[in-house]
């Protein structure tokens, strides 16, 4: 019986750590992370508008940077379990509803520590199932993309990451630290809930080169734990990476306080 079981075709659950992709035209890649669907501080309308924008933008792709759901449980830190505005089931359904709209444009989904909250108690990795449902690559911790345009190739390494940094400059240091190990054209880190992009030069074999660094922002208003701990407020938003044969750069899509101030976010 046991032998039979091991002869069955078990689907591959290994995360994707390297992705090669070819494009015929210049592309844009939105780095979407730390949405925290269901948190009392979740910016709902901004989230919905962002996915609509991705859906309607030509040659735009996106990478899920993790922490899609708030997913507070009775065992997680703080009183988030009673404060969250959607149940974990509602959070999962909402995440899937939004991601499904743009699944053909998704280059992969990283797993965040909030999405992780069912792993320790019951061994279920939420993002693995989400990626399997949507038929997109599951990236888990770190993934390197080789992005080939007609006449130029770029390498991009992305991660949800881990860090307890709380100030804008110490948060930025996290992605500089990443640059000590990962020798790519573009590096992007989530988890810090700050939107920052930077062109940072370095030497490679005596030649000065430029690479891009990004912290991928959030879809959260200031409040909750960050406010209680007197951390500085951070503007929500997300970076978009623009790649062409001649140029790479980031644009920052910041949450617009004036546009959304009347909304019941
Ligand atoms: Fe987060
Ligand atoms: Fe996180």
UniProtKB/TrEMBL annotation:
<dbReference type="InterPro" id="IPR004843">
    <property type="entry name" value="Calcineurin-like_PHP"/>
</dbReference>
<dbReference type="InterPro" id="IPR029052">
    <property type="entry name" value="Metallo-depent_PP-like"/>
</dbReference>
<feature type="domain" description="Calcineurin-like phosphoesterase">
    <location>
        <begin position="27"/>
        <end position="194"/>
    </location>
</feature>
<dbReference type="GO" id="GO:0016787">
    <property type="term" value="F:hydrolase activity"/>
</dbReference>
<protein>
    <recommendedName>
        <fullName>Calcineurin-like phosphoesterase domain-containing protein</fullName>
    </recommendedName>
</protein>
<dbReference type="Pfam" id="PF00149">
    <property type="entry name" value="Metallophos"/>
</dbReference>
């Amino acid at each position: 019986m046991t032998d039979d079981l091991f002869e069955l075709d078990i689907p591959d659950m290994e995360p994707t750590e390297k992705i090669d992709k070819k494009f015929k035209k210049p592309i844009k890649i939105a780095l979407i992370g730390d949405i925290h669907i269901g948190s009392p501080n979740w910016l709902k309308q901004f989230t919905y508008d962002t996915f609509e924008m991705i859906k309607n933008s030509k040659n735009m792709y996106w990478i899920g940077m993790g922490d899609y759901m708030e997913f507070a449980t009775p065992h997680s830190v703080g009183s988030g379990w009673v404060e969250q505005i959607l149940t974990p089931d509602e959070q999962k359904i909402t995440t899937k509803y939004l991601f499904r709209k743009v699944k053909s444009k998704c280059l992969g989904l990283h797993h965040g520590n909030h999405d992780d909250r069912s792993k320790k108690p019951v061994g279920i990795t939420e993002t693995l199932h989400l990626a399997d449902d949507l038929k997109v690559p599951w990236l888990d911790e770190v993934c390197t993309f080789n992005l080939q345009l007609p006449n130029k190739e770029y390498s991009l390494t992305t991660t949800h990451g881990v860090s307890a940094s709380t100030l804008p400059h110490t948060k930025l240091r996290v992605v500089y630290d990443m640059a000590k190990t990962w020798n790519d054209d573009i590096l992007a880190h989530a988890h810090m809930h700050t939107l920052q992009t930077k062109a940072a030069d370095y030497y490679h074999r005596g030649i000065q080169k430029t690479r891009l660094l990004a912290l991928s922002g959030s879809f959260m208003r200031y409040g909750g734990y960050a406010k209680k701990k007197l951390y500085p407020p951070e503007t929500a938003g997300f970076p978009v990476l623009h790649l062409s044969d001649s140029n790479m750069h980031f644009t920052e899509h910041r949450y617009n306080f004036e546009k959304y101030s009347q909304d019941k976010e």
